[in-house]
Amino acid sequence: MKHFFFKQNSVSVVLMGVMAKNEALIELATVQCKNFYACTNAEELIEIVLTNPIHLVFGTLTYEKNSYLEALSKIKQFRPETEVILFLQPQDSENIDKALHLTCKRYFCFHAEQEHSVTHLLNAIAAISDKDIFLKDSQYFDALIHASVVSQSDIYGNITYINDNFTKVTGYTEEEVIGRNHRILKHPANDKAIYSDMWETITQGKVWRERVLNRNKDGSDFWADTTIIPFKDYMTGEIVQYIAVRRDITQILEERREAQEKERKANEQAKISEAKDSFLILFTHELKTPLNTIINFSQYLHKNMHRIEEIPKEKRLHLLDQIYKSASSMLANVTNILDLSRLRNHKINFTYTLFDIYESIHDVIEKHESLALELNKEIVLHSDERSIFISSDEFRFQQIIANVLSNALKYGKKAVDISLLRDQEKIEIIIEDDGEGIKDKQSIFELYAQSNGGLTSMEKKGTGIGLNFVKLLCEELSFQYRIEDSITLGGAKFIITKTIKEHKNV
Structure pTM? Predict the structure, then answer.
């Protein structure tokens, strides 16, 4: 039997009389005992035992002219738990009756057993250790059983015993379960593999442990940390019964789930708060560029109204055109924000028409000329064909291209290339920039995700909703989208694909 509380060298021993001079016994006691004393003086013996926790007094009743009878009587009176093993010699014959009244643990004939004294001491130390260990193991086992849901079953799983906690937790009384199979606690939500593993383990005589969902008598659930212990016949080695010890952890799991849910909500609120702050900062920053253009150009025209005819007509038209495009850009950002909520809830109505993709993209590029000019970027459109028609919602299509192009202009260094390609199966719009590229090509499509640092970093460019808006629009309009690294320019390469065969009958 394996003892949980076993500890070597836990016994304290006193060797007395002749045994105190036995070198073999002294060597054994030195190795095997926690504390070891050797004495041939009766007064010293009393002092040692009464002032120290001694488990065993081992030796002869007399030594030379010294008798330990009186000393042992006091020890038995004040330390009855101390065990005494006596070896009686021929000269002790007149004190035999008194010696027997001591009710020692064992009595040996010194003449016959002297050569076996080492074995007797070793057995006595082992017996005291086992007694102490058994007491501690029993206390541990009793405490464990008292706090657990315990049941016993035969080798077929039929219940033969339950403790009080079994009834308190499951609701089943002893009369209702004795003789019935443990399957009454089986919960249908558990994987069958759990029970297969259990039977495979315990039928091999091994202890099985798992966290299992159980069903009570009233149909409610309870989680239990379950340990099943096989017990074998000592003689045959065959399994004769199983003990199931369950620790109800339902409340622990519920409290843990509640704590995790609180933490999740707290983190969610923190992210929402941070996202709101980020959005306000980023969106305000995003509006500054077109607003500055509108204000500056409007002020210029207003201040020069008295000589408006002196300003070349082409310049006046250019200024008004830039004001219009900047206002349109602001309106597009506001529209994106308003549309995003409706789009996420699938509440946008789409208007399908047949339109020329090349012309539609060209129109988007023209509206971004002021931004490209301010950022000192060049936009180049490549296409082998000038007329490529598809059936879709042109306004929403332009929103997709505008958001991707805007990102490319803001994060690129000098150039943005747009390629329009078509084969028999698909049409592809490829927008490439020469920026730093995008490391996480999946999360960039999530709301408020950007390729730069923290949410509120002013190094960021854009509102953080553009690509999420693109993602949702593409999904609604059946466009495929992906981001790759641009081999040509070294930055990001955004590819929008439309399968032609999807619209043959539109």
Answer: 0.40
